[in-house]
Design brief:
This protein is mainly beta. The protein has one domain: Porin, CATH 2.40.160.20. Helix content is 12%, strand content 62%. It is built from one helix and nine strands. An eight-stranded antiparallel β-barrel has the order 1-2-3-4-5-6-8-9. The chain starts with a helix and ends with a strand. The mean pLDDT is 81.
């Protein structure tokens, strides 16, 4: 319970920082290459609350990994698909009964509300897959998930940007549900002109 409260407060502080303090501190980005096709990926760490028939309200830290691809419709809107997931319990090659994870395939929309500022809001939804290698439970399950997030793009070299972000994801499957607060850093490439 204490960890979840800490993560909630940290998430709120992060959003306040991203939307009110950071835009004033960051210089305008006039030469953004946010056009054409986009590919990227990210890695991070988060707090997952998992509720299944065999585990009730389990809350623990989790690693996150994701990949995305899409198209910049204009300099303010990017649309595409992403594949991401979290490890609840790591797999063990010596014990095939260990391992639990959730993965998502989603359609996303990213919106940059302020002209010449790399601050964005993102959201999307799609299918989730829950996997548990334990012989005592149903091993695989499917359902639906959605996410919202925010972050900013820091240009490093032409067409490449580093992307620190914060995300909240939630999903339901037949035998349970989950929610994750995640902090991540990624890299994106825009094909540009």
């Amino acid at each position: 319970m204490k960890t979840t409260g800490w993560i909630n407060r940290f998430s709120v502080a992060g959003f306040l920082f991203l939307f009110f303090i950071l835009p004033e501190a960051m210089p305008a980005q006039k030469n953004m290459y946010r056009n054409g096709f986009m590919v990227g990926g990210w890695a991070g760490y988060g707090q997952m609350k998992l509720n299944t028939t065999n585990i009730s309200n389990s809350s623990h830290g989790t690693y996150a990994l994701g990949f995305c691809g899409g198209y910049a419709i204009n300099s303010k809107v990017v649309m595409g698909m992403e594949l991401n997931g979290w490890t609840s319990k790591t797999s063990n090659l010596e014990d095939p009964a260990e391992g639990e994870s959730i993965s998502n395939v989603s359609i996303f929309l990213t919106y940059f509300p302020v002209e010449n500022l790399p601050l964005f809001m993102a959201g999307g939804g799609g299918k989730l897959s829950y996997t548990n290698n334990s012989p005592d439970v149903t091993g695989r399950d499917k359902g639906w998930s959605w996410f919202v997030g925010s972050g900013y793009e820091i240009p490093v070299i032409k067409r490449f940007v580093i992307v620190p972000q914060i995300r909240y994801s939630r999903g339901n499957f037949t035998d349970g549900n989950y929610k994750v607060y995640e902090l991540a850093v990624g890299l994106k490439w825009y094909s540009g002109k």
